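In the previous chapter we treated chains in isolation. Here, by contrast, the input contains two separate entities that must be folded as one system, with a combined length of 718 residues.
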Amino acid sequence: MSQEFNTNLGTLFAVNLDGPSRLHRRSATQPDQSAPFSDRIDRFDLGLGMGELAAEKHAKYILTVEKKKDDIESVLMEHLRINGAYWGLTTLDILGKLAAVDQETVISWVMSCQHESGGFGGNEGHDPHLLYTLSAIQILALFNKIDTLDIEKVSNYISTLQNEDGSFSGDKWGEIDTRFSYVAICSLALLKQLDKINVENAVKYIVSCKNLDGGFGCTPGAESHAGQIFCCIGALAITGCLHYVDKDLLGWWLCERQVKSGGLNGRPEKLPDVCYSWWVLSSLIIIDRVHWIDKEKLVKFILDCQDKENGGISDRPDDAVDVFHTYFGVAGLSLLEYPGLKAIDPAYALPVDVINRIFLH
Amino acid sequence: MLGRIDRGEVRIIGVDGMDSDEDERQLLPLSQRPEWSDVTPVPQNDGPNPVVPIAYSEEFTEIMGYFRAVYLADERSLRALHLTAEAINFNAGNYTVWQFRRLILEALNADLHEELGFVEQHASKNSKNYQLWHHRRWLVEKMGTEAAVGELEFTKKIFLNDAKNYHAWSHRQWVLQNLGGWEDELAYCNELLEDDIFNNSAWNQRYFVITSHPGLGGIEATLDSEVNYTIKSILIKPENESPWRYLRGLYKNNMQSFVTNPKISTLCLNVLTSKVNPVFALSLLLDLISNGFEPNKDLKNAIEAVIPESNSQNSDISVTICAILEIIDQMRVNYWRWRKNNLHSQVAEGVANLHIH
């Protein structure tokens, strides 16, 4: 899939909302910043020159991108800056480096992206959209500042975007896609306002997008795609409706995404891409079938996508890096329990300790 | 990928179908164009560390500054329309620009056919851009059934360059369901699969057509011809994931027919004896056996021949299949082990289902 699809989809990562049942069984751990990484990778040493995660470089890369917005890529991403902020900040938190960021300035800028309707735009002065609303909520969650929001106002904005058939439009212009089902459900779950929408219809619509291969597409009948599958599975998990999923059938489709290089693709006969390390992997974890892929080969693939000199991770080895793929690579490694990384929740796409803070207090 | 943009390519000065005088005027910075002299550009508040405009982004920054000015003033004029075109030329990803463009088009009661042309101009370089596709959808919704044929043609053009473009397939499905045009769709799938039999999108579209085409009679009516087509496709490239899944899908609610159709087991036998990649054939046989199918001697021999050393003491052919798959599809060894451990419950359930019918 294209960068464009990825950038929009990447904003969907939010949370896990399913009452007492926990999807992610690992306990939240704090990374040990004192231990050198080389001491911790023995599990992954296949004697194949496995390589290490250049964590310090990646953190530096993200902080640099945040500070130095003078390259054309940054200029062209101006309209979705809030997505970029979510990817960057969550990556920093997974790496244990969130404190390097000035919380106050980030939060006041995030709030400046809010529209009078309650929704958030991709940057200040941009129209509101569900995608950016979720990123805003997630960023605030990272800093434990969800209470900065007028929760009623944001929830109302989101709930007005549900359609009669249960689907969600991204904004008032009416585009419908299961990505938006996930975003809405995730957002409201984080705000503890799921009762603002018709959950039964929302689930019904998602289930109507299930295909004969067990996967899900953007709308009923659309081709199964790992990104859409993540959205549907995440939403079903959050609403406690995973029983609608044929886990064995879908699990097999998902594990067939692993290609010879160890990387994962998003559909049959497509190229592997680091971002699928997240979408396929998190889906497999949610349905409890992650042991069906070769985890060590996937770790190696992700590590091979690093730029170990300048920091950052790319879609596949030797391509140019960007914040989007850096986030997915690091988040994927966290799901794979790579040492030294904070645990991340597979459905909410936020660190487990952030989720615990929201739901266990 | 943005990271791979060659800096020289960014300065695309496209025009939306205007004459050459307009073109020349457009090349001047906005601050030097007399028709914009009444407007003060508005900078972007880009957060804690704002964008620093440098040489090659100055023109873009200026255009966006003027865009923000007309956007904030809600000026829905012709010059604003042209400005959105310039902004889109530089960055087709900016959704706020597209949305404001729609407001202007409505206010000016603009010719939507021309606008379709505008989208088409940008489509090849932005074929995976959500904003572009949604804008197209909005246009077509306003134009109605008359636009159907054009949209089918438009998506075909996109498929010439990328036959798996997810946006284009989503658009095409929407057009068929809302505006019609089903008649030649299955034939079009055949064409695409002739070009690339591995095209999973085309296989998905096949299923979409046989289940949704109002005139075909659904899966029941097309089952035999689809099975024949799929078997032929599998024999051409047995390592192709899509037709194997498609075959299973055809029989999804009809397991008994699946198990008892001799063509299916013959297919597996053919694939196994031709010494090509046997993974999908073996996994299909596993599913069939789990649902009560009993392979004959030829089939058993063919299975065991894949890895002669693997069958040893196993009288249970499904255990043998799992053992083989654990070896030849090592990446998914845990999946095949799980299948092996669940064989008995699967078989019992499968056989029970068979007898119910």
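Chain A touches chain B through 72 residues (CB under 8 Å). The longest strand of chain A covers residues 313-314. Compare these points with the single-chain example from earlier in the chapter.
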